[in-house]
Fold this protein.
Amino acid sequence: MNRWTAIIIQELLCTARERLPQLLLAVFVGMIAASAFIGSSARASVAGVYREVVRQGLTTAPNPFDALSPLYYARNTVIYIVLIGALLAIVIGVRSTLRDRQARTADLILSRDVRPSHYLGAKLTGLALFILALLAVSAVINIGCISIVTGHAMSFDDGARIASLYAVAWLFMLPFVGLGMASGICSSSSTTALLVPIVIWSVMIFILPLLGTAAHPVSLLNPVAAPPAAQSGFFAVTSSLVAPLSLGEQFKHVSALILSDPQATGTMTSGLLIIAAFAAAGCAAATMTGRVRMRSELHD
Amino acid sequence: MTDTAISTTALTKRYGSHQALNELTLSVPSGEIFGLLGHNGAGKTTIVNLLTTLMEPSSGTAVIGGHDIATASNQVRRSIGYLPENVQFYDNLTLAENLLFFARLSGVRAPGARIRDVLEFLDFTGRENHRMGTFSKGMRQRAGIAQAIVHNPSVLFLDEPTSGLDPQGVARLREIIIALNTDLGMTIFMNTHLLAEVTKTCTSIGILSSGTLIYQDSVAATLDSFPGQESLEDIYLHIEAGQRS
Amino acid sequence: MTETLTLAHKELTDLRRNRFMVVLFAFLAVTVVLSVVVASADFRLKIADYHHYLDALAASGNAAAVPAPQLFPLQMLRGGIEYLEIIGSLFAVVLGYSMITKEKGRGTLQLIFSRPLGRYAFAGGKILALVLLWTATVTGLFIVITATLLLVGNAPLQGGDYLRLALAAAHTIAYLIIWSLLAMALASLTRRTGTGLILALVLWLIVVLIIPQIGDTMDPDNQIPGGLFASLQVDASHEQAVMAHFTGYETTRDLIEQSSVTKQYERATFAYLGIKTEYNQQPLGFIWAGTFNNTLWLLAGLALSVSAALLAATKKTILRKAP
């Protein structure tokens, strides 16, 4: 076993054995499973409302839900990835590098013939594999729950779309892992190590979209990206500046297109490129830290 | 003031099935500098935690300055000072603000004058308005002593007081501990690993092994009782080896 | 009592000099102000659109009277309140958590508890410091908000508006104290650094984001793009008549939402600020009658969090969990 593989395996073991990320993981997987059933309950209520509206003779329109595909049940998954998935990525990233500083194992590692970038790159790879496995399990659970709710097995095409959603989710979570790792190395205390990436996350998810779209923060919990504000005056300037940085909105936009959401319009190329650029930047930030910082003491 | 500063009777502490302290019976007369020796995990910090009322015993009793740790814990706290191992402070506060805080918590009536005395005694004059974050390890340890004596306790507990200090720092702290005992009349109970320091500082010692007190006597009597051994370190190893066999 | 005041005084001095906390509060203030600026820009855009529309009507020879968009200045605070709801509570969690972990990390707990303190003096001092800190911070924030409304939004505020702002501020203080105290209790009950914070964050995630999101998802009208009733061409009066047949489902949905203290806070403040249309420009008595249960639930949450912090931060509990 070479050093690279040894570090990856060690990282996977440490992350899998940490109880706290497991708690977030349980919330994440639980919500993914629950989302289909929440959607089903809402759909049943819509069907009831529709029957009542027809009975009172208020409409002749067809039930709007009949036109929606089974992928509709996966739309809430997107918001859980933006909220819980990103936080989980931050927590495991922070814990990964903080662990070495708290236990002073960084000294043991750096006193050997290991380049810091090589070591951190292998750790990041380990965490990326961990998230990949987690998302693969979540995708299977999601497909299973939707099949139960709809009463029939999901078609290959729909299954492929769900798989694509989780592939993009993996790319979306990577920058947060990198950000967490970098913060775990650079922060002076474990509190700031967790807090700084969470503040950056809240800026990207809740504050930047407001500047570009005038969308209220709570409405950003909607799984479909907020429509842009009228492109004149204030918003013409801000939206072109902040839209590429609103990672959550970009992910929601791409996901809505993947899930064939009728509200989503446009193409996913620019969104995918932005998410990939963030992933590359996050990975670079995590692996480019120097030896001195990795050994710095924590002041908790 | 009673003649016995610290006395314990069958003091026991269990953590689940692990017996950290086993029916410890110990007596330290007033005016002593008592050094408690023992290997890592022998139970030294557990004793200090119990005697400073930070922990409750599983069974047994202890009396500090005439007050029972279980029934009169607040009186015990008024009569003791405590310096934990690797003491830390509020780094954003100055030395004087830290001391004022601890003095007030200890119920000192005129803290300003008392703090000035303590700062002068510990050679801190001129540094009182510096933030703790700027202090070296040695200065922090002295500041730790300052917070422990700011309310003029009669018994002082020091947990590994010389841990992490350079030789100059160790020598300076030794002078302070002896001065606290001789000039201010405080009884001092200290845990330590540095046996050379014990010879120079303490008047009596106790040896703890796996939660049991296996030896207690004055330093002078101990050195006399083991003529074949060259130093306190040799005596300690000899007694420990005798216990194991 | 003296030791409680001493502890609270030390805490406030320490926090005032903590650069990181100062940056966090400044960040919160900037965020809230920014939301007011964005809301006022959005309103100006609506006014400009309205004038363009009037010009277009005039050019086509149409003299129909179209009402201008009305400015209700306090409604511009919607984004700001939502930021306090989400990001403010996040900072409150961090603040409450750090109150305990800094003592654990520095080893100062032993220094404090080796002194003759009353059983609840330590927790009492921390709680008092949090109450004073949030009262001062939120008051400052609302002064900044009011100034922004007056200067940036050019909003004509009346005497009653200031009272509504004060009521919203009082709710905000209670809401943020709840989060700080819950985090403080969790930090007291956990041994490892970070464990309490992550537990508090999970709680924050569930209460602030997930439960309201579930409630929102369960709303039938939110299920269809553009709204269910709009897609069925059913107007508001008929909508109520139809929904009267689904009271059980709506009650369940409402209960889910009400289990979140965030929703209680949001409903009460949105009512007092007139953000919720049915309470806009209504007298305070009317608003109180409609939202007193939200305020009472918020107060119950406050009582619960104070009790949790008092019980969790006693010497016995906290030292057992000290590293």
